[in-house]
Amino acid sequence: MRPEGHKGQNRPPSLPFSGKKSYWEHQIDFRRHLLFRTAATLVTVQATIAGHYQPFGRI
To answer: Could you give phi then psi for residue 8, rounded to 5 degrees?
Structure first.
């Protein structure tokens, strides 16, 4: 039979919640925002190009 320990055993104590994001959390948020903004811009550009430059003219 395996001895059952307390939940969270062998884990470092968590820091008290300050309500502020760490430097790395800000970096992750910024990069996520930049990625999605870039993707949205690319979709818009593709749609614009597809609307203006259709092969063989408009049918």
So the answer is: 85, 5
